[in-house]
Write a structure and sequence with these properties.
single chain, 5-stranded parallel sheet, 5-stranded mixed sheet, globular, alpha/beta
């Protein structure tokens, strides 16, 4: 059996009872480390904290392993119970749907244990979840790569009066371009996009496109470390949020669409 288990957002205690029971049954545990991280998982002892709770070792599964070598893990799941642990909810990232498809093609039985994800945790600010449009990802810009496909999606959402959740890039165990050119992978240090960087990139794209999808006065909500004890939620214009220190990762951003009076009342509690 392959168990795909959501861990929630905050710390090791956010796993559900059903999830913990499944972990205890499994002989092999993998934890996905590239679509998101538990708030405490950024620290050096994050993995050991989980191992202490589970009473067994964890194998960290990076993007390379899941996308290129997942069949090894699925082959194991034919003979033993294997747990694949995912921060948030198992289906918060498309890679995990692909894992299920691959498992079914190999006749490996799959059980899913759900949990809270960033997709519903952003409801804390009072913006109603069913008033969100398509979610977008904001990747780190480089000198030679500045993709802006998110712009049309934000523009479309705002045209319909809908809010837009922007998921901000994290880079964990990413090979440097220079090392790839030399044929030997050397990994860059982990980096996590901040709300300030995301807003700078959003405004850069708006300046280039000039189609008034948003501007520095557009109301947004910044979130940091949702689900943890020190989570931070601040509402304000893009210009205001740029100057807010949101602290440690992980960050995400909502661009606010048309609001209902009840939403406005809740947002007032979080205005900078």
């Amino acid at each position: 059996m392959l168990y795909i288990i959501g861990l929630g957002l905050g710390d090791e205690k956010d796993i559900t009872l059903k999830g913990l029971e499944a972990v205890k049954k499994c002989q092999k545990l993998y934890i996905e480390s590239y679509t998101s991280l538990l708030s405490f998982g950024i620290s050096d002892d994050g993995i050991s904290t989980l191992e202490k709770l589970y009473g067994k070792p964890l194998t960290v599964a990076d993007r390379e392993m899941v996308e290129e070598k997942a069949d090894d893990m699925l082959t194991e799941a034919r003979d033993i119970d294997v747990a694949f642990l995912v921060v948030g909810d198992p289906f918060g990232a498309t890679t995990h749907s692909d894992l299920v498809v691959r498992a079914k093609k190999l006749d490996v039985e799959v059980k899913v244990v759900y949990n809270a994800s960033i997709m519903n945790a952003v409801g804390v600010c009072g913006l109603q979840l069913y008033r969100y449009g398509e979610t977008v990802s904001i990747p780190f810009f480089t000198e030679t790569w500045r993709p802006d496909s998110f712009y049309e999606k934000i523009q479309r959402n705002r045209g319909l009066g809908l809010h837009t959740l922007c998921l901000l890039d994290i880079r964990v165990k990413e090979p440097s371009l220079e090392s790839l050119c030399r044929g030997k992978k050397i990994y860059e240090p982990p980096s996590f996009m901040t709300i300030g960087v995301a807003i700078d990139q959003l405004l850069e794209v708006e300046q280039l496109r000039g189609e008034s999808a948003y501007n520095e006065d557009t109301l947004c909500v910044g979130f940091a470390r949702l689900g943890s004890e020190d989570q931070m939620v601040v509402a304000g214009s893009m210009k205001q949020l740029r100057s807010v220190d949101f602290g440690a990762p992980l960050h995400c951003l909502t661009i606010v669409g048309k609001t209902h009076p009840v939403e406005e009342e809740m947002l007032d509690f979080y205005r900078n």
